[in-house]
Amino acid sequence: MNIPFFSNKTSGPLMDQGESTPEHIAIIMDGNGRWAEKLGMSRAAGHKEGVSTVVKIVKAAVDCNVKVLTLYTFSTENWKRPKKEVDTILSMPKEFLQEYLPTLISNHVRIQAIGDMENLPFYTREAVQYAVARTSENNGLQLNLALNYGSRHELLTAMKEMFKDLNDDKLSLRQLSEKDFSKYLYTAGMTDPDLLIRTGGEKRLSNFLLWQLAYTEFWFTDVLWPDFSEGEFLHAVEDYRQRKRRYGGL
Ligand code: FPP
């Protein structure tokens, strides 16, 4: 993970693009395992290389002025993997933050977590909560780590909370709006993603941000996450900028 982090870059192909650069990009970082297996390496090596890509892509997002980057780091379904692999993936946030938190701080990155943090190992939770607290005043890129995240679980939990409030007359059923419901989600207060990138060749959502992706533009690539580069990222952003979003209108 010895990669130079942020440059002092002040210009580049996507700097100062104004309105149409996506404000919020969400990424399903798929393909670590296959990348490693192709090279005869362990799946753990693939996840470690995946962290190097995270570093490059966070830097690229800062450089092109993206406001929010949400990374699908560990899903509620990933517990089905062998314990050794689960432990490896869940140790990645701590390793990443131990090495890069000072650089993230000096680049004004604000770290947030979405997902059910309670069932994560203590070392993951502690590292992430520390980083969230330490960066809470920063006003640069918001980096959301989706950890033990599953959209159906999020929606069900939100509905339960909302029903409680309806029952306690804190909300009116008649006036209930989409905006009201959104406040019960992990992503409360965040804008919905403008662009979803999925690497690794699969074309599915895998229980990621089902509510929030309602009008998001999708970009799929066969490139495996460890091979995903700043150039690919900029390509996806550029492709997004050519699109016309109509939100069901004309
Ligand atoms: C999917 O690839 C990837 C994951 C389940 C884990 C992603 C996690 C990282 C890249 C580490 C992120 C760390 C930080 C700090 C954000 P896969 O293993 O399912 O790949 P495969 O489909 O080739 O088997």
Automatic annotation (TrEMBL):
Keyword check for Transferase: yes
Required co-factors: Mg(2+)
Recorded GO MF terms: transferase activity
Function noted in UniProt: Catalyzes the condensation of isopentenyl diphosphate (IPP) with allylic pyrophosphates generating different type of terpenoids.
UniProt-listed Pfam families: Prenyltransf
Taxonomic placement: Bacteria, Bacillati, Bacillota, Bacilli, Bacillales
Annotated substrate binding sites: 31-35, 43, 47, 75-77, 79, 81, 198, 204-206
Species of the source: Halobacillus salinarum
Cross-referenced PROSITE patterns: UPP_SYNTHASE (PS01066)
Name of this protein: Isoprenyl transferase
EC number: 2.5.1.-
Enzyme class of the recorded protein, top EC level: transferase
Keyword annotations of the record: Magnesium, Metal-binding, Transferase
Cofactor binding, note field: Binds 2 magnesium ions per subunit.
Annotated family: Belongs to the UPP synthase family.
Complex and partners: Homodimer.
Matches recorded under NCBIfam families: PRK14830.1, uppS
Chain sites annotated for binding Mg(2+): 30, 217
Active site per UniProt: 30, 78
